[in-house]
């Protein structure tokens, strides 16, 4: 395995993708935020004081994906062709799972954009609910799947 973001002398660099082929690239990431049961109930009923928590988190996640290159120093600015966020509310675990699917046709992948979308969406849920629950925990942010490019398909759990 080669760390591609370092040159031969060990200095950080942005990978040169000039010679790479454009392919359809898709990445799916997930994460979850665990909270008090009352907090989840307020979100579910749409009664959080700051407004529609999941609606605002949706917009924030899309914006996060689009701005990844501004946040992560070695990421390329990408023309994203799709960003989709889905939420699963789990009353048993008092959690919300965030899943982001990001796509583009380009010379580099969108894994970082999917991970950023999940992170920003979860942080937005925290921000909108912290007045009633500062004990929320954001956890398990991870890449589930990626396709496209020279390295092909990756799916978490595949050997």
Automatic annotation (TrEMBL):
InterPro entries: MoaC (IPR023045), MoaC_bact/euk (IPR047594), MoaC_sf (IPR036522), MoCo_biosynth_MoaA/MoaC (IPR050105), Mopterin_CF_biosynth-C_dom (IPR002820). Substrate binds at residues 74-76, 112-113. Its EC number is 4.6.1.17. The keyword Signal does not apply. It catalyses: (8S)-3',8-cyclo-7,8-dihydroguanosine 5'-triphosphate = cyclic pyranopterin phosphate + diphosphate. The active site is at residue 127. It is an enzyme of class 4 (lyase). GO terms for molecular function: cyclic pyranopterin monophosphate synthase activity. One of its GO terms (biological process) is Mo-molybdopterin cofactor biosynthetic process. Keywords: Lyase, Molybdenum cofactor biosynthesis. Pathway: Cofactor biosynthesis; molybdopterin biosynthesis. Residues 14-149 form the Molybdopterin cofactor biosynthesis C (MoaC) domain. Pfam families: MoaC. PANTHER family: CYCLIC PYRANOPTERIN MONOPHOSPHATE SYNTHASE, MOLYBDOPTERIN COFACTOR SYNTHESIS PROTEIN A. Homohexamer; trimer of dimers. HAMAP family: MoaC_B (MF_01224_B). Catalyzes the conversion of (8S)-3',8-cyclo-7,8-dihydroguanosine 5'-triphosphate to cyclic pyranopterin monophosphate (cPMP). Belongs to the MoaC family. This is Cyclic pyranopterin monophosphate synthase. It comes from Acetonema longum DSM 6540. The gene is moaC.
């Amino acid at each position: 395995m080669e760390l591609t973001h370092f040159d031969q002398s060990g200095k950080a660099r942005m990978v040169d993708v000039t010679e790479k082929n454009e392919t359809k690239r898709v990445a799916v990431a997930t994460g979850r935020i665990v909270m008090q049961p009352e907090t989840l109930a307020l979100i579910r009923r749409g009664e959080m004081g700051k407004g529609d928590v999941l609606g605002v988190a949706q917009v924030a996640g899309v914006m996060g994906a689009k701005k990844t290159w501004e946040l992560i120093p070695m990421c390329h600015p990408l023309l994203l062709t799709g960003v989709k966020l889905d939420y699963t509310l789990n009353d048993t675990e008092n959690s919300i799972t965030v899943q982001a699917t990001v796509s583009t046709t380009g010379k580099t992948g969108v894994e970082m954009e999917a991970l950023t979308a999940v992170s920003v969406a979860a942080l937005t849920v925290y921000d909108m609910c912290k007045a009633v629950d500062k004990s929320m925990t954001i956890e398990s942010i991870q890449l589930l799947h990626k396709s496209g490019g020279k390295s092909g398909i990756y799916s978490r759990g595949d050997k």
